[in-house]
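Table S2 (text version). Query chain:
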Amino acid sequence: MAEKYIMIHDIMSEHKDRMLNLKKYYPFFVLCDTTFSQYKEGKYMDLDMGYITMATLRFFINENNFHESEITYEQYEGFLLELLRREFRLEEEPKEEKELAGYIFDKIKNDGRAFTFSYFDPEERKKKTARVKLIDSRIADGVVLYHVTTDGIEFYLDTKEIKEESNISVQQLLLEKMIQSENFAGGIEVVKRINNEVGKLALQKKEVLDLLSYDVFSGAKASEEYMETVAKWFDDEAKLFEKNRALIDKAFAKANAENALILSEIHKLDTELKKTIIKHGELIKETIELQNIADEMIARAKLRKLRPVFNFRDVLKKMMENDRPEQLGMLISPLLMPKLDKSFSVESIDRMLESRVDNQDYGEKVEKKQVDTDYVFEDEIEEARITGNFGRLFEELLEQLWKHGRTTLSELMAIYEIKFGKEIYKNGDIYSFLVHLAQKDKYEIKKMQQKQDTFLEGLVMDALSMEKKDRYGDMVFSVSFEPGHILRFGEGKEEAFTITDMHFEA
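Corresponding structure-token output:
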């Protein structure tokens, strides 16, 4: 009996809240059901009013929140006609198109009236009417301006949340409207949803780190996408938080001290918003940490790619080009070693049969091996050599630009020869350095100190001392080529290196 009483009480007490929650869906189905059935004898029945409604809400959310501007009818008409021509291949006379756009907009805003949704309230034993608008308007300086309502935003978010980097910003817009309408209880739920979005981004950061641990290059792509997602709303979030905090302060000042319930809800909302601000600060810290870890792991992976490997396909191609099939012997001779016959002594079988069997279980002894932390790998030796050489070559280039403002590759090579000797032409690092240098047409030393875009920038920033970085910190120089001028290096038979002349200008 008690259970039945509880069930009936739940049905009656919850019905009103359920109906008010359903009301924001009501306009969508009304619009889908009747919009084009009677207009011009069903001429435009092929148009999908559901799609048009959703696109309209997304357009208003984008303009109202992301661009912080209300919409005139002319702006909406331009958006709608572009949509109809693109998605539904609408081809009508301009006058006919404008008439159709006006008809659709009147339907969406219900001619300026609210959509009415009737329901029965079992607690008060009478029918009630709930009202809901998707688009509302106001007049400013003689111009009618339109904006999306709280119900419109909630409906759009409930159907499917918009793109990830916009979620938190749209929730902030919804929170602003909740506070302005003094719906503080609803505002608390919105802030909790914002906290969930921030939590999702924090979990996504851990997934990116896991991906980096076993697939650096896929992880690098995921890291870039994550940083791009977070960066799109970081700048705007601070402004939105401050705006909503100011609205809460006004609500505190406006609230009647005797209305304890309202003050309690405002206090809870303020507490939740403070938690959100703290979580945002932690997320910013974690994002910077992720960027540093990703840069370090990607740099190490790039250096490991320099390790020499044997490519059978390239070797076969060279043999065919040189017409030297006998060189295949070097590849297959290890596979043609003589087969060694192996035997098993009969006496070993006797010893196996006579041996005692120990049926006891023993644990596996695990020995902790000492790792030689001073061991230097070959690729680390190569990395140190390349870093040192690239650093000295780049530093000399900066020094010449610092003194003269411009130089050419021919002048630079002459300076290298004076400083490092003619052996510089036999060192492959000089040519590798020039190839890497030619990847960009402009270098800014200050930006390079903050983030390195190329393999060369990462190495030279490691090689340059703090004194040199301070000295050349404001330098910006460009790289260009002179295709008609070919430089040749080396003497006699060693004259095998030709390079297009380059111009460097600060």
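Notes on Table S2: DSSP finds 19 helices and eight strands in the chain. The chain has a mean pLDDT of 76.
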